[in-house]
Amino acid sequence: MSIAVTGTSGHLGRxxxxxxxxxxxxxxxxxxxxxxTAKVADLADRGVQVREAxxxxxxxxxxxxxxxxxxxxxxxxxxxxxxxxxxxxVDAAVAAGVSRVIYTSxxxxxxxxxxxxxxxxxxEELLAASGVATTILRNNWYTENYVGDVLGARESGExxxxxxxxxxxxxSRADYAEAAAVxxxxxxxxxxxxxxxxxxxxxxxxxxxxxxxxxxxxVLGRPVAxxxxxxxxxxxxxxxxxxxxxxxxxxxxLEGDTRAGLLGETxxxxxxxxxxxTTPLVDGLRAAVAQG
Length: 292
Prior knowledge:
By secondary structure, the protein is α/β, with parallel strands linked by helices. Helix content is 46%, strand content 15%.
């Protein structure tokens, strides 16, 4: 009855494995899969099974999922490639006889106008059609997504945003990872636990970018001001500092989604799964900055 986690050389997947171990999982019954297994070799030293799994190479997935009962499918990081990659994993999970897939999705993926939602919506549809029991964890924003802004403010003394008065109900990656571990361990112990459930996970507090500036000031120990700009001004600024047009447009689109309120829901479901409050913004930023 093993639990496999994909993408463990990435931030979230690694934290899911760490949370499983911290919550008492038998390391020999935890499978950490990664495209490059050398990056997670230290987990093998702790008794975890380390297996190669490349979303784009189906031949690696069959062996990676052999004997797996519960699979935590951490969504791929390559925008535009997620659907075929995830299809490969879902097909391999079906072939391997996996009894539960836990997928890290996006807020209100099937109905939201969020720029990231369509690939997650398509993946949820793939899972629904697969016949495998699922649990969908629709993760809101990660606090760590703003570390770059914090580090930039260390020199400039300002945050620049076109998100207006939009709010973000972020939580730390560790919070979301622990929730995945909670669900996976429950599913391992009881095949009906969390089956067919869709969780809208978010931080307890929906903060504004004024709040982000205040938190950044506290973390850095220096005054940080928020400079509000228009979407066009933000796009031009990002291109001027070296981003390509596509990336700059993507960032501006995300800030537009934030401005529209698509990231501001505070459902309380993450805290309920964790049995504790989610990590406050300033604490999450401080920990992330300290980790570099």
